[in-house]
Amino acid sequence: MNPETSSTSSALQNASGRFGTFAGVFTPSILTILGVIMYLRLPWITGQAGLWMTLLIILVAHIISITTGLSVASIATDKKIHAGGIYYIISRSLGLSIGGTLGLALFIGMSFGTSLYLIGFSESLLSYLGLAADLNQIRWTASLALAAVAVITLISTNLAIKTQYIILVTIGLSLVSVFGWALQNPPLQTTALAWQQREFDFGELFGIFFPAVTGFTAGVAMSGDLKDPRNSIPIGTLSAILFGLLVYVSLTVFLSLYVPLTELSSNPAILNSIAWSNEILLGGIWGATLSSAMGSVLGAPRILQATAHDGITPRILGLGFGPDREPRIALLVCLIIAEAGILIGELDIIARIVSMFFIMSYGFINISCFVESWVSPDFRPDFKIPRSVSLIGILTCIIVMIQLDILAMFGAILVMTLVFVHLKRRQLVLDRGDAWEGFWAQLVQNGLYILNRNSIHQRNWRPNMILFSGGADARPELVRLADALVHNRGIVSNFDLKETSKDRFLPRHQEVVLSDSDDWRGIFTRRIECRDIYTTMEQIARFHGISGAEPNTVLLGHARSLGKAERFARLVQSFAELDYNVLLFDQSRVRKLSAKRSIDVWWSGQGNNVSLGLALLRFLDSAAEWQDAEKRFLAIGSEERQLPLLQHTLQHTLLEARLSGSVKVIFNPRNSRNFKDIIIENSSQTDLVLLGMPDFGRDEPRIAVKRMNDFARELQHVLWLRASSYFSNIQLVTRSDSQ
After folding, report:
1. pLDDT reading at 107 higher than 70
2. Does residue 542 contact residue 682 with C-beta atoms inside 8 Å?
3. In whole angstroms, what is the distance from residue 286 CA to residue 292 CA?
4. How far is CA 327 from CA 230, 317, 402, 593, in A?
């Protein structure tokens, strides 16, 4: 976040703190819950599905809303929730890319929700006036109602909140008026309590009903305007959800017991027929639909405003006006989307669209709480819930989305994935970090635990490499070779060592060097200042790594200086004593390792160095720049009868390693020719030659270094190998043995 974001956030906080739990959370939430679906669709759903299926629909919907509400309550008591409500929760848990994607989805869902409520209002008003509720009439009426809601919201948020108190009382009276029917009429003698076989399936009916339980987001979206969001959001949200559940279950049971199902399914205005007072009922319907629309119009722009403050949407959408920083430009966008929904004009279609957006958003709220509680050491909420609660919410959301409309689900996922990829490419980050840091740390910990308990077979070996590069700028070819040798399947810990006489070294947090390129994402570089490079390299090799991911290979450049031959020999020997695979790269003095056309691997006929070479070659062969290189496997035999055995052994070994390449066995009778001459004669034009390293523990250091220098002068690029005890010797194989 940049200074503009910080200043805007500060301004927003200065405008906060106006509403308490009842006014700021419970009231807008319960008014949206007890809205158009309760009055105009619950009776019809009950008539279509019967009592038990309707109760199942209500139960499943409330499993989602209750688990999500509990997750919201848990997160709200852990961290201070600023403007943006649910968007703020998700973005601070899962990062701005996911938070921004879900925030925009939630904004669109709430904006379309405004259409849903106003279309319901229009249906009721036109029916009361005796006018035809055709599509055009609904569009005109709902558009005028949207304009009225917008004016009230623009005048003052306080006025909108105060208006909702009157509406809340009216809704309460309308419910009393409906339930009063039971005082004058006995229950039906035969009630259709069995499952009903109707033309609409569970998914279709659920999609129409679900917007009824989404109302609690209206209160959470007001988080930036609350005096104490940490306490108000959990108390107000859960109270509204549970009270709404009580009302919906009671009304469903009442309608099933006192009204024939045929009337419920055929008469959308059945509540008008049974209420004591039509005027009070209409007041409740109109008040509920208008207040629900008002709640969405209050909450949705604040989500969009919060995304603008985080740089997700254009900054202009984050502008606030007046002393309360009202999001009027964001409100305009909300009204445009709401009008688009009104032009669709079909309440049931809008309900299914709203359901998909909200269910997906609620799934991610539960994911946020689950991930936070699992991986974040900083997650210590006052209101704790079992992790299984969030998991139940996640699974229920997934199952319900599949039941609703699997094509719509995949369509929504595709659109949201595109938005996520766009935001991810913009590399939006939070100053405070997010739960993914803890998630990856937890994943690494679990992986290390498993790796530490199981021994790795040679066929599954991968290099975990310590690289002493002297810096990517100083030896880029060495770093490129290390990257190719692991090829995204191993780890390279690259140490850039600098000798210094300073009293103080670099602080540890400044040692990490981040690459600007994704090409070397498996290379982790640290710049370390030290007194003596040789001593530091030995200490790093001795102590670097953690159990389960211990380094197994050391790669460094070959030191050609004879003056430092003894120190270099002791260093290489110490690596060998620590049982590392030791790789020394001797780069050509005249050309870079740019032409990657050929690789030669030499085998002396004994030892395990060639086993290491073949393992490394599998990784090298996977790197794009080396895939087309011609590979040769060469050996020298001093006895003629030994040649077929060496030839077959190499061919069998390559087959076992699933490597392609040619095999060449060179006859050197009675070792009459020097090995060096034979190797130079056959590999002088090869781009990369893999050779077994001299034994520094046995040979005199200066002689060994000089011998290596002699090879380097005649060859292009040499990678000297010394394998650890992990790799086994290659045994000579006869043709009968291989069969």
Report:
1. yes
2. no
3. 10
4. 23, 7, 36, 59
Using alpha carbons, select from 243, 241, 247, 199 the residue that is nearest to residue 45: 199
For 630, the 3-state DSSP assignment is strand
Higher per-residue pLDDT: 607 or 142: 142
E strand or H helix at 598, and its extent?
A: strand 598-603
Strands 512-513 and 523-530: antiparallel
Of 313, 375, 290, 261, the residue nearest 108 (C-alpha): 313
Report how far residue 242's alpha carbon sits from residue 236's, in angstroms, rounded to the nearest whole number.
10
Nearest to 166 by CA among 287, 32, 37: 287
Mean predicted confidence (pLDDT) in 623-651: 87
471 CB-contact burial (10 Å; exposed 0-12 / middle 13-18 / buried 19+)? middle
Q: What percent of the chain has pLDDT over 70?
A: 82
CA distance 632 to 596: 14
Helical (H) or strand (E) element with 635: strand 630-637
Residues 462 and 423 in one domain: no
Q: How far apart are CA 44 and CA 267, in angstroms?
A: 8
Tell me, yes or no, whether 634 and 709 share the same domain: yes
In this model, does residue 173 exceed pLDDT 90? yes
Structure tokens at 581: 């695979």
Instruction: For residue range 258-268, list pLDDT tens digits in order.
Output: 888 888 888 87
Please name the residue that has the structure tokens 């997650």.
379
Query: Is residue 336 assigned to a domain?
Result: no
Give the closest residue to 610 by CA, choosing from 630, 639, 581, 638. Answer: 581
Q: Which segment of 467-481, 576-590, 603-617 scores lowest on mean pLDDT?
A: 467-481
pLDDT exceeds cutoff 50 at 641? yes
Instruction: Give the H/E segment covering residue 584.
Output: strand 581-586
Q: Are residues 418 and 474 in the same domain?
A: no
| Residue 328 in domain | no
For the domain that residue 568 is a member of, what is the CATH number? 3.40.50.620
The sign of the CA dihedral 115, 118, 124, 125 is: negative
Nearest to 40 by CA among 96, 95, 104, 122: 122
Q: What average pLDDT does this structure show over 30-53?
A: 88
CA separation for the pair 127, 161 (Å, rounded): 28
Bridge-partner residues for 636, per DSSP? Answer: 666
Question: Do 385 and 259 share a structural domain?
Answer: yes
Looking at the structure, do residues 489 and 399 belong to the same domain, yes or no? no
Q: What is the pLDDT of residue 63?
A: 94
- Based on the domain organization, do 522 and 662 belong to the same domain? yes
Q: What's the Rg (C-alpha) of the chain? A: 36
The pLDDT tens digits of the residues spanning 660-684 come to 889 999 988 877 888 888 999 999 8
**CATH number of the domain that residue 379 is part of:** 1.20.1740.10
Instruction: Scan for tokens 């606030």, then name that residue.
Output: 320
Tokens, residue 566: 């003894």
Domain enclosing residue 645, as ranges: 458-738
> For 547-562, how does the pLDDT look when each residue is reduced to its tens digit (9 = 90+)?
667 889 999 988 777 7
Same domain assignment for residues 106 and 227 = yes
| Per-residue pLDDT at 634 exceeds 60 | yes
* pLDDT reported for residue 4: 35
Q: Where are the beta strands (DSSP E) in 177-236?
A: none
Tell me: do 637 and 673 sit in the same domain: yes
Residue 720 — very low, low, confident or very high, per pLDDT cuts 50/70/90?
very high
Mean local confidence (pLDDT), 382-389: 87
At residue 418's C-alpha, the angle toward residues 413 and 420, to 5°, is: 90
Q: Measure the CA–CA gap between 192 and 169, rounded to whole angstroms.
A: 33
Measured between alpha carbons, how far is 373 from 435 in angstroms, rounded to an integer? 9
pTM of the model: 0.64
Q: What six digits make up the tokens of 41? A: 């669709």
* Residue 303 domain-assigned (yes or no): no
Domain count of the chain? 2
Distance between CA atoms of residues 118 and 396, nearest Å: 29
On the CB side of 721, CA atoms within 13 Å amount to 25
> For residue 43, is it within any domain?
yes
